[in-house]
Automatic annotation (TrEMBL):
InterPro entries: ARM-like (IPR011989), ARM-type_fold (IPR016024), CND1/NCAPD3 (IPR026971), Cnd1_C (IPR032682), Cohesin_HEAT (IPR026003)
Swiss-Prot/TrEMBL GO biological process terms: cell division; meiotic chromosome condensation; mitotic chromosome condensation
Single GO term (MF): histone binding
Domain Condensin complex subunit 1 C-terminal: 770-878
GO cellular component terms listed in the entry, alphabetical order: condensed chromosome, centromeric region; condensin complex; nucleus
Lineage top rank: taxon: Eukaryota
Pfam families: Cnd1, Cohesin_HEAT
SUPFAM superfamilies: ARM repeat (SSF48371)
Lineage: Eukaryota, Metamonada, Parabasalia, Trichomonadida, Trichomonadidae
UniProt KW keywords: Cell cycle, Cell division, DNA condensation, Mitosis, Nucleus
Name of protein: Condensin complex subunit 1 C-terminal domain-containing protein
Keyword Cell division tagged: yes
Main localization, broad class: nucleus
Length: 1131
């Protein structure tokens, strides 16, 4: 058989005249002299479509023998008839030079030859380049995409035909034979084909990827060092950096890469450890790719025998200056902790490593970079969520929660200025709660509750969902239900529609639906009056948004009749709110017919009738009797209010009956107040009488009719004592203020005098309840009669410093309402009072003040913080502000003692500012403060605190601007978010450089000024210089020319800090990997830029040819390596 095939091969070669060529032709081919080679073969018969079939027959014969164990028989038969392998090599060369029509035949024949015994003797890099060109062409097609035209389909089909042939050739001897340049080119082309994918080329994708993966497996088992530079970025998915999200296809591809690497690398391979370290140092910055890189590195570490060495290396990288490296190390260490037993079966070794890894994570939680803090928190969250079945659960908890670390850090991180950190802290709190078998700690629930009022919309929405999930998981915790009501119901007034919608969904799912279904629930047992007020707004929202309330109306109507008084009271309260919103959903006759049962029904029944506008002579007559009874005996507050509401709804135009009741009440009050022996034997009944007076006055159609009534007793009850010296109970005084307030709102003629009386109460050291009600009354009076209350606004504002936290909160509440409703102008002094409150010693008051200022007032006046920032610096450093008039004694009450509260105010003001405002504010500080020191308008000794605070504020602003340029997009953000963030960073950097250049002269002058005066302020000025130089290294070079001494000091400080920050820093490679171009290997770049049909053409034939033909030199070494067994083919 071999003899017959050998003779057939000889016949084919003879037909094309190969056996007639001289040795010079073969020498020219070997050394790559294409010009001479072309001249030699020009006389050979041309290859055409008619005679190429004979060459195809030659290829078929070679393919049949390729891979057979007895193929040496064929070559022995060829030697017997004097046919050398290089004759077949030459016919391959001839095919490749004969045009594109014969390219596939030439490549296939040559690749088959390379898979056979004489491969070493016929190796020629020029002949191999068309094969590489086909691979490069295919990878470019897939990378660029486009419609599947007939031409592209032909090229991809050709690749599928020839690509698998290299698998037959591949071996250790093949790798040594082709050399590093060709091997690098083959590696890069293969990697690109392994990662390429286009939906439009679906029928080609899998075939090319399968072949590429098979070849890469062989490559990793042979010459790892050469392919490493391409395998590292490929394994890290850097070819997918244009994508912001990780698709399912990309995840499957990466899983396949992981399996390939694990299968191909040997655990004891020295390149394995090196490869993993390369991966760790070159992790991409993109968040979604970083996650996949974490999975990759962990799987490789788990598969290695050097886990301890690699973990130590990761912990060293965790101390790097590079933010991205610290983020990655946090992710990886968290994953290692979760699956620690797989890495370290030895429990003793595990304990030591575990403590070190957790310490790194705890350190990263307080890192300067927000992304590091967030990632560390997410890592701890992951660890906690996987603790249930962890062998080292006790040890992990002991290390994580040392000295209550988690609670302390979560309190700080949950109010972090960065959204990504607060989001991570919220998720961590959630995982801690669910990891425990017991009910959640109150402190953790409180942290979630606080996030419902977060700056960020997404955090508020997430907190609402988390509270809802907790309700489902812990349905019997009353305090959790109370917090839920306090947090969720007020969100109906949130300015963001998405938050409103989330709150409505939560209310419907956890409150309304259980009520409609009659399911057991705690809410109706613990709801307060304010809860029902918010619920009324919820019902209004639902009606305006066409949400069906009829099921709730029907359920409540059923419950209020069929349940006992104590049980149905909450449903009556809901019903009263609903009847005000959706009257048409209720049957008026049904409720009217309940009148005969009114004594057994709660007060809300009367309010319900009033809202439904139900009236009749019978009801009117009965109401007179009820009111008379309330006046005579002193009724309950709510019952009095509801009865009088229904009485007013009856539409009686004559106030005679009400005036009679007022007279009766006032006679009682005056009798007690003016009696020499008057006292309060029944405080509750008397206070109810006072309350009824206010309610009766508010129901009058003509308040002027009260001119004939003596209200002296009511006025006396606001004092601390009666004229006879007996003390007046606080309850009575408090209700009296409310009653007098209603009288003032009804009669403007007496309001001026009473306004002064209310202000006097606020300024005295009286009961906080009285002061709080006085503030409310003054607020209502300001709305009704602005001119009357305006002279007293300063006194109301001073209540912000009252000794009672309740009074301070009430003052903030009423002032905020008046400001946002435009009844009170926000003046600089009023602004300073709010700043005093946001750092109040009482955390509850401070928190409320921040909500009022930053969440209510600032959204209405967006420029407020910038407008008054310079004045704030001057006011709190006791500098004179020309336009500000203030009583010196009052100012002392609002002075900060010590630096801490002042600096805290500046930080709170800077935090919500955007970058544009910060840039403008920096210029303002230099123009309105620092330049005035330079011009000697301010004195360094007298105004040193102002200059110090100005630089402290500048440091805060610079820190905020610097962190803005370090923002990283998250995997849950939109696909275009990273481009937006990158553009924003560039814009911020440009604006920042412009700002520095405009202020640098002033900065140099102020530095000279403090240095010449030997001022202690040199330290703060140098600190600002230092921060600028940290963020902009070019600035330090400029400073070395103008201020060499200062520059030397800063450089030395930076050097010391750098050396202390990371030990053994030299072991950690900092160099960023170069971005991959289309092709990186030198040979593949040349091949890519040369048409495949010209890869084997001489330079003279085309200016696009790959090779420049060298001059003919007989001593030039041939391309092929020395032949083995050359004697077998000699004559």
């Amino acid at each position: 058989m071999s003899t017959k095939d050998a003779e057939e091969i000889l016949d084919i070669l003879s037909e094309f005249g190969i056996n007639t060529l001289s040795e010079d032709v073969f020498h020219a081919m070997k050394r790559g002299d294409l010009i001479e080679f072309t001249q030699f073969i020009s006389e050979l018969p041309k290859i055409t479509k008619n005679n190429v079939s004979r060459i195809k027959q030659l290829t078929k014969i070679l393919r049949n023998w390729s891979g057979k164990q007895n193929q040496s028989d064929l070559w022995a038969s060829l030697r017997e008839i004097d046919v050398r392998p290089d004759w077949i090599e030459l016919i391959s060369f001839y095919l490749l030079q004969s045009g594109e029509d014969f390219l596939a035949d030439g490549v296939q024949m040559y690749m088959i030859l390379l898979s056979m015994e004489p491969a070493l003797s016929i190796w020629n890099p020029i002949l191999f380049r068309p094969f590489l060109g086909i691979l490069a062409q295919a990878s470019q097609i897939i990378e660029e995409g486009g419609a599947l035209t007939s031409e592209i389909e032909k090229k991809l089909q050709l690749t599928i035909q020839v690509f698998p042939m290299v698998l037959q050739c591949f071996s250790a001897s093949f790798v040594n034979m082709i050399g590093d340049d060709v091997y690098m080119a083959l590696s890069e082309a293969t990697i690109k084909l392994a990662s390429g994918y286009r939906p439009e080329y679906e029928k080609f994708n899998s075939q090319l990827q399968n072949t590429a993966f098979n070849l890469l497996g062989l490559m990793l088992e042979t010459k790892t060092d050469v392919i490493l530079q391409y395998i590292v970025p490929w394994s890290l998915l850097q070819f997918a950096t244009s994508s912001s999200t990780t698709t399912a296809r990309l995840e499957r591809l990466h899983d396949r890469i992981i399996q390939l690497l694990i299968k191909s690398f040997k655990k004891d391979d020295p390149y394995y450890i090196l490869f993993i370290k390369h991966l760790i140092l070159r992790v991409p910055d993109r968040a979604n790719l970083k996650v996949r890189a974490t999975m990759l590195v962990f799987e490789l570490i788990k598969n290695s025998d050097c886990a301890k060495e690699l973990i130590d290396f990761v912990m060293k990288v965790a101390q790097s200056n590079k933010v991205s490296s610290r983020v990655f190390s946090s992710q990886l260490l968290a994953m290692c902790v979760v699956q620690l037993t797989q890495l370290f079966p030895d429990s003793d070794l595990r304990g030591n490593v575990l403590e070190e890894m957790l310490n790194i994570l705890k350190k990263h939680v307080i890192d300067r970079a927000p992304s590091v803090r967030a990632t560390a928190l997410s890592g701890l969250s992951t660890i906690i969520s996987n603790l249930k079945d962890h062998e080292d659960k006790g040890l992990i908890l002991e290390n994580i929660d040392t000295n209550k670390f988690m609670i302390k850090i979560l309190k700080a991180r949950s109010v972090d200025e960065k959204l990504v950190v607060r989001r991570a802290s919220l998720e961590t709190i959630r995982e801690i709660i669910y990891s425990r078998d017991t009910a959640p700690d109150d402190s953790l629930i409180d942290l979630i509750d606080e996030r419902v009022r977060d700056w960020s919309v997404s955090i508020r929405v997430s907190a609402v969902k988390t509270l809802g999930d907790l309700l489902d998981s812990f349905p019997n915790i009353e305090r959790l239900h109370r917090l839920w009501l306090d947090a969720i119901l007020p969100l109906i007034e949130d300015p963001e529609q998405s938050v409103q919608k989330e709150a409505i969904d939560a209310i419907r799912n956890h409150l309304i639906k259980p009520v409609c279904a009659g399911s057991p629930e705690l809410f109706t047992k613990i709801m307060h009056k304010q809860d029902y007020e918010f619920l009324g707004r919820v019902f209004l929202y639902m009606r305006l948004h066409s949400i069906d309330l009829s099921p709730l109306c029907k359920a409540l109507t059923k419950f209020v009749v069929n349940r006992e008084y104590d049980t149905n009271r909450p449903y009556w309260r809901m019903l009263e709110s609903l009847t005000l919103i959706v009257k048409s959903s209720f049957n008026k006759d049904f409720f009217k017919n309940l009148w005969y049962r009114r004594d057994t029904l709660p007060p809300e029944y009367y309010g319900t009738l009033a809202h439904l506008e139900i009236s009749s002579d019978e009801i009117h007559t009965d109401l007179i009797t009820i009111i008379n009874q309330l006046v005579e005996e002193g009724g309950r507050y709510l019952l009095s209010h509801e009865v009088l509401k229904l009485f007013k709804a009856q539409g009686a135009g004559d106030d005679t009956e009400l005036m009679n009741f007022i007279s009766i009440c006032m006679n009682k009050i005056n009798g007690v107040a003016e009696d020499e022996h008057g006292d309060f034997t029944n405080i509750k009944a008397f206070s109810q009488t006072v309350y009824i007076v206010g309610e009766l006055i508010s129901c009058l159609n003509d308040p002027k009719r009260t001119n004939d009534i003596d209200f002296t007793g009511l006025q006396l009850l606001m004092s601390e004592k009666l004229p006879n010296g007996n003390p007046i109970p606080t309850l009575i005084r408090t209700i009296t203020v409310t009653a007098l307030g209603k009288l003032c709102l009804a009669r403007k003629d007496i309001s001026n005098a009473f306004a002064s009386a209310f202000v006097h109460q606020i300024m005295t050291d009286t009961a906080s309840e009285v002061k709080a009600n006085c503030l409310i009354v003054l607020c209502d009076m300001c709305v009704a009669y602005s001119a009357i209350v305006e002279p007293h606004v300063q006194s109301v504002t001073n209540a912000i410093s009252d000794r009672s936290p309740a009074v301070r909160k009430q003052a903030l509440n009423v002032l905020t309402r008046l400001i946002v409703e435009d009844f009170l102008k926000m003046s600089p002094l009023l602004f300073f009072r709010f700043l005093y409150s946001i750092t109040d010693d009482n955390q509850d008051v401070a928190h409320f003040a921040r909500i009022c200022l930053f969440h209510v007032i600032v959204p209405k006046f967006p420029n407020l913080l910038k407008q008054y920032f310079i004045d704030t610096l001057m006011y709190f450093t006791d500098c004179e502000i020309a336009s500000l008039i203030e009583n010196p004694e009052i100012k002392k009450r609002f002075r900060f003692r010590g630096d801490e509260r002042r600096l805290k105010v500046y930080k709170l003001l800077v935090t919500p500012m955007n970058e544009v405002v910060l840039f403008e504010l920096v210029k303002d500080i230099f123009g309105r403060v620092i330049d005035r020191f330079i011009k000697c308008e301010f004195n360094l000794k007298e105004h040193s605190l102002l200059l110090s605070d100005s630089f402290n504020a500048l440091l805060l602003m610079e820190d905020k601007l610097h962190s803005s340029t370090k923002t990283e997009a998250n995997t849950d953000e939109g696909s275009d978010m990273e481009k937006v963030i990158e553009g924003a960073k560039n814009a911020i950097n440009l604006m920042h450089n412009t700002m520095i250049s405009t202020t640098m002269q002033s900065l140099k002058k102020i530095h000279q000024l403090v240095r010449e005066n030997n001022s202690p302020l040199q330290k703060i000025v140098k600190k600002f210089y230092r921060v600028l130089c940290d963020n902009d290294k070019e600035l330090l070079q400029d400073l070395e020319r103008s201020e060499p001494i200062l520059a030397a000091e800063i450089r030395e400080e930076m050097r010391i800090e750098e050396s202390e920050k990371v030990e053994d820093e030299e072991d950690i490679e900092k160099k960023e990997p170069e971005k991959l171009s289309l092709f990186n290997s030198p040979l593949l770049k040349k091949i890519h830029n040369t048409p495949i049909s010209l890869l084997c053409s001489p330079a003279k034939s085309s200016t696009e040819a790959l090779l420049v033909t060298p001059r003919k030199q007989r001593l030039v070494r041939e391309f092929s390596t020395p032949q083995h067994g050359d004697d077998d083919f000699s004559d």
